[in-house]
Design a protein that fits this description.
Blueprint lengths: L1 H19 L3 H36 L21 H11 L13 H4 L4 E7 L4 H15 L11 E2 L5 E2 L5 E5 L17 H8 L1 H13 L2 H5 L4 H9 L9 E6 L2 H4 L16 E6 L7 H12 L19
Parallel strand pairs: 1-4
Antiparallel strand pairs: 1-5, 2-3, 5-6
Length: 308
Amino acid sequence: MRLLKMIGEGFARLWRWIKETAWIQPLLIVGAIFALIFSIPYFTSWIQSISADSANYFARYQLTLEGEPSGNTTSLTVTTEADKITASIYENSNFENEDSFTPSEEATAYGYKFFLVFCDEDSSDVTDAAEAFETLSDNWNVNYIPSATHRTESGASITEELKVYTIFTDETSSNDDDDGMEDDSAFQRYLKIQGEFFEEAASRLSQYTPYVKNASIDSSYYEDMASCDESEFQVPTIMLVDYTYEASQLAQSGTSISTRVGRVGASEVIFSLSGDSKYENAETLINMWNHTDTTDKSNPFTANYSNN
């Protein structure tokens, strides 16, 4: 206590000296201004490092647009990692609503349930999304808990493991300057090749997901998705792909719970995360994951949602 008292008395004497010594005050003000100016680059670097860390999270799960054959601009030639997963989702989403549909082993090799995120390297909305996904991942099964054990079509239980894949819309590829390919970016060529998938997915997800109505999502987002125009494609676009039996039993939005159309494969989509913090955004993601939990009336991704 005596030491603390002595330190306090020393600071008090210093403060009185500063107040009583007129010439020192301008020097302190000028010094504070220069300290602020010189600290700006360090503060900027710190902010940039936060963004870089977030981008690095999505980069860990990137499926590349690299590897197209020369001249591959319109035909569905599946060669890149991004093309392979998208073609697999398209073939296994049961857009025709066939009875007794079973996803292929190739499709479920990616996971029975996973997020597919379309992102870029440096936009602020993508940084927010990456922080939310990292928060979700770090607290998976702790603060953010999958609602129930899911099953395959054969009835086998599925371990609720968080899986994320990303496609970067601003990725460049080594053949961007090849003849016949130089007019479009790698992502625009990808959109042209996978156009039917985005048209079908946008049509389904704009009509049959409760979230559209519950969150009042504007139809223009789905129209932009279906247009396959890179300049209109929203970043981030976060899609949930779900091959579980429960996804095949989902009800059509706005109809009786007994009316089943199912949403196997491309099952949910959102075009931004608008929470006030990464924790609120992570909550949105776990609600999206738990979209088949028909007992949760607080989840806007479910048909039984009530905001009362």
